[in-house]
Amino acid sequence: MISYREAIERLLAPLSVLPSESCALADAGGRVLADTLTSPLALPSFDHAAMDGYALKAGASTGGGSEHPVRGSLAAGDAVPGARSSACEIMTGARLPDGLDAVVAVERTDVLQAQPDGTPRRIRLLDDVTPGQNVRRTGSDVSRGASVLAAGTVIEPAQIMLLAALGITRLAVVRRPRVAIICTGKELQTGAPSPLRDGQIHNSNGPYLVAELRRADAEVVSCVTVDDTVHPYVAALERAVEAGVDMVVSTGAVSMGRHDFVPDTLRQVGARLLFHKVAIRPGKPLLAARLHAGPLVLALPGTPMAVAVGARFFVAPVLRAMAGQGGEPVLHATLASAQHSKPGLRHFLRAALWLDEQGRLQARPLDRQEPFRIQPFAHADAWVVLDGHAGDFASGMQVEIASLGLAATSLSIGAATGGRTDRPSRCAFSRDEPR
């Protein structure tokens, strides 16, 4: 049995970033940027008005009380005439004519003369006007040639807004990891709902893994259920290899029982075992191997919370490494109730989060932490991670926390009772901090 950190090191060491592919910006949501992007233009790409008013040349003649003739009017998108020196009516977003370098807000002027249609002909300034006033300068947001997004960035709506503004319509993204799921167990019922036979249960691990992997932008090539025998499992592995998957995630049959055939089967097909058994709870029997044909195999115990822990704390780091992303940030909260853990094991506990009256993030592990219980998982906000070197964790200690899902961009925060699940707010974190 090895430590969690050693298991992750063995798991990630041989991994390389998946190849890139071209993607339309409209389809890039959730994808991972393959290369650092540089800006093809300045943003803004020209000096323009920050508000409705009058463009003019600031100087000694533009003090408060000065009067100025107004010649012309410009709205956003209008073609700009040549250089000029007289004031010009201008609307927000319109380009400043050459020779003019400031904009006075319309409400800080008096209109002295106007044409019959209301167009101002002469104005008086109520305040002094200085160069650059109310002007959005060329490149003040993004300069031409600047790096705007780093490789490994997840493309979300904010990034799409930036790239669209820069006129970028296609970009190189990392190919989605291809994953096959194999659920083992003759007791598992799959397919169309029907009355359970004696000893049967509904397969919940498969649908959970499909949902989590898709949410993490992986391509789920297949999800099959096989009984507790060697040949169907090997056949499923072979189909996964033929489909060109990058990773196989299996559930069940990985412990020490007489029907736990997965470890020996992987050895028989020539897989190279990276580790078997990790000092964690739940999920200790977890196994990782590399098939001779290439795909990584993560064999998770079949108990639901062992599957959830395996997905969050083993599958997720693999997906990040394949996408060329760095480690996740380390997040902390104050432990709201004392916990006792078995020394030597890294414990993963489902927990509720809330902000106390001082705005400090609190975490309370939920009751009923047995790994077969699914309902607490559905009501949790986050995982609390208790390091294996200590046994007792007193209330008030700082502990590590992690989001529930693989695609970790934010944490849910429950109500102040720590027990409600309406989750009124979010606790966001940066991706740039190393784990």
From TrEMBL:
- Where does this protein have compositionally biased stretches of type Basic and acidic residues? 420-435
Instruction: Write out the ranges of the annotated region (Disordered).
Output: 416-435
Q: Which reaction does it catalyse?
A: adenylyl-molybdopterin + molybdate = Mo-molybdopterin + AMP + H(+)
Q: Where is the MoaB/Mog domain?
A: 180-321
Q: What class of enzyme is it?
A: transferase
Q: In which pathway does it act?
A: Cofactor biosynthesis; molybdopterin biosynthesis
Cofactor names: Mg(2+)
| Record-linked Pfam families | MoCF_biosynth, MoeA_C, MoeA_N
Keyword set, alphabetical order = Magnesium, Metal-binding, Molybdenum, Molybdenum cofactor biosynthesis, Transferase
- InterPro entries attached to this UniProt entry: MoaB/Mog-like_dom_sf, MoaB/Mog_dom, MoeA-like, MoeA_C_domain_IV, MoeA_C_domain_IV_sf, MoeA_linker/N, MoeA_linker/N_sf
Do the record's keywords include Nuclease? Answer: no
* Enzyme nomenclature, EC number: 2.10.1.1
Q: Which family does it belong to?
A: Belongs to the MoeA family.
Function, in words? Catalyzes the insertion of molybdate into adenylated molybdopterin with the concomitant release of AMP.
Mind telling me what this protein is named? Answer: Molybdopterin molybdenumtransferase
Q: Which organism is it from?
A: Rhodanobacter caeni
Lineage at the top is: Bacteria, Pseudomonadati, Pseudomonadota, Gammaproteobacteria, Lysobacterales
